[in-house]
Amino acid sequence: MRLNKEQKQKIMNQYGVDRIWSFSRVNVAHNCLQEYIHTYLRHDVPHTDNVYTVFGSEVHDITESLTTKEFDLNTASDAWKRFVKKWEEDPEALHFDTEKIKQGYLGNLTHYFANTELPEGAKIHTELPVMTKVGGTNSKPKYVFVGYIDTEYIDNDGNVVLVDYKSSSKSSFSKAKLPEKSMQLMLYATGIHQHDKVPFEKIKARFDMMKYVTVHYKQENGKWNTSIQERSIWVSKMQKKLETKLKKAGIDKEESRKLIQIASLANNMDNLPDSVKEQFYITNYYIELELTEEKCQKLLEDIEKRCDELMELESLSEEDQDSFAEVNHRYNPDDYYETHLCSYHTSELFKKKESLLKNVLKPEFSVEENNQDNEMHSLFNDDKEDTTLEELFS
Question: Helix 23-31 vs helix 183-196: angle between axes, to the nearest 10 degrees?
């Protein structure tokens, strides 16, 4: 349930702040300062959808209906297939960047909605608003954030479980990138801790990586092990293990090859002997976050610093804002986010500006000047890595 204008105003009055912050606002500045300026300060570039936001919205709606039990797996799967069919038949629909990305995305999500696990617990909520105080004191915070948790429930062990659904690649949630990726969910967990006094050890925060499954398989020593695989090809990725197990089951090489081929094409093991099938099963792939008092306090300090920097930016004149952004976040035409997803750098406003600059650019513009400018690093992007197409959507 989204807070309305009156509810937000009540919070602002209670804590003496003039703004309710969202993490997405801070994150936009981290991704691109010019996008922040033109989206939040000047409001002169429109929000534009891309194929991933269009599909993401549908994924969100179906997942919410599953969580609230409005849908079961059959109706969720049917709803997803209807959406995909309608999209495929629309001549003006937005398209994926490559056929490979399209097939992987659609195949993995189709499997998810037919096979996902549903939350088991009590007091299940979707889009639950959560407030987090940043800086200052409990009664007089410096900044107040409000966000919405995809799914929140109490599990059978009494833990508060927060789930954030992700349809992007697991490579973008690598060990090196996870601290940045997990900031929003950790901020929500901190808000639950602040408001409900729940100890951090009783809060479980996780990403449901929708495109993947955890494959559980029995080893030859009788112990179980796991492997993370894309949903749409998980059976074919088990080929070597299946060959070994079918051989032990007394099935010859040629018959084994046929059985594995059928199983791989169907992406299930229904055609295999029970003695082999029972040695495999799949579950959702979750990335669990480690929540501690120390880590969450550090998070609040980092976010407070980012907000301080944004407030300083907002206090500048428009000319100085542009100069600051140009020095601290120079446009990178090789960055996928900026060239495809950034609302400013994909706007007509930016394209017109770039066209004018090309026309008036001095011939004597030197490579040395450009190199010197590039050596200046951003207050917001000291550790930012270029976003790649493969990491975002493969």
Answer: 160
State how far the alpha carbon of 155 is from the alpha carbons of 34, 72, 231, 372, in Å: 43, 20, 25, 55
Strand stretches in 94-140, DSSP E: 121-136
Cα 182 to Cα 289: distance, rounded to the nearest angstrom: 8
62, with CB counted inside 10 A (0-12, 13-18, 19+), is buried
pTM of the predicted model over 0.85: yes
Q: How far apart are CA 304 and CA 297, in angstroms?
A: 11
At 275, phi and psi to the nearest 5? -65, -25
Cα gap 40→28, rounded to integer Å: 9
Handedness of CA 34, 39, 40, 41 (dihedral sign): positive
Show the domains of the chain with their CATH numbers.
124-210+287-297 (3.40.1350), 215-281 (no CATH)
Q: Dump pLDDT digits (tens) for 258-312.
A: 999 999 999 999 999 999 999 999 999 999 999 999 999 999 999 999 999 999 9
pLDDT above 60 (res 380)? no
Please, what's the largest Cα pairwise distance for the chain? 78
Residue 131 CB coordination number (10 Å): 18
Q: What is the residue-wise DSSP string for 16-50?
A: T-S-EE-HHHHHHHHH-HHHHIIIIIS--S-----
Q: How far is CA 9 from CA 12, 13, 210, in A?
A: 5, 6, 36
* Helices and strands of the chain, counted as H and E runs: 17, 7
Residue 31: pLDDT above 70? yes
Instruction: Give the type of residue at 337.
Output: Y
Q: Are 109 and 133 in contact (CB under 8 A)?
A: no
